[in-house]
Amino acid sequence: MYKKIVKRILDFVMAFFAIIILLPLFLLISIAILIDSKGNVFYVQQRVGKNNKDFKLFKFRTMRAHADKAGLLTIGDHDNRITKIGYLLRKSKLDELPQLLNILFGQMSFVGPRPEVRYYVNYYTPEQMKVLSVLPGLTDWASLMYIDENEILRQAEDHEQTYIETIMPAKLALNFKYINEMSFVCDMKIIFKTLIKIVNLNSR
Question: How many domains would you assign to the chain?
Answer without folding.
Answer: 1
